[in-house]
Automatic annotation (TrEMBL):
This is Rv2175c family DNA-binding protein. Residues 63-117 form the Rv2175c C-terminal domain. The lineage of its organism: Bacteria, Bacillati, Actinomycetota, Actinomycetes, Micromonosporales. Keywords: DNA-binding. SUPFAM superfamilies: Putative DNA-binding domain. It comes from Hamadaea flava. Pfam families: Rv2175c_C (PF18367), Rv2175c_wHTH (PF21531). Coiled coil: none annotated. One of its GO terms (molecular function) is DNA binding. Residues 13-55 form the DNA-binding protein Rv2175c wHTH domain.
Length: 118
């Protein structure tokens, strides 16, 4: 079994859903809708749904995140497992897949997520 603590250490900052709504200037119901639709990853930490801050660092959700989450769910991953995959260090990427999503390697991360289903 994977170590939740180790993965959590790779997430530098967490943002709760009301703060995500405020950051994007949308109602909280819209953030919950994004989560239900699979466009946003949120997991419970200390009883509160939270999002890794770097996934919502801009004025929108990272461009490739919804596609990667769809691919991971298609491969059978739940939100906790998707979080683990996104935040497990990978020597062939600069850090973790989540960090690579914000840069030039986003398509490579998507390709790797797609390969998990096979």
């Amino acid at each position: 079994m994977w170590d939740r603590v180790r993965v959590t250490e790779n997430v530098s900052t967490w943002v709760n859903l009301p703060d995500v709504a405020e950051r994007f200037g949308v109602p909280i119901t819209k953030v919950h809708q994004w989560r239900k639709e699979g466009s946003l990853l949120a997991v419970r930490r200390d009883g509160v749904l939270r999002v890794p801050a770097e996934l919502v660092a801009n004025d929108t959700v990272l461009k490739h995140l919804p596609g990667v989450l769809t691919l991971l769910r298609d491969a059978g991953y739940n939100d906790e497992e998707a979080l683990r995959w996104l935040y497990t260090a990978d020597d062939t990427l600069p850090g973790t897949p989540a960090q690579a999503l914000g840069g030039d390697l986003a398509r490579e991360v998507k390709r790797r997520a797609q390969a998990l289903a096979f």
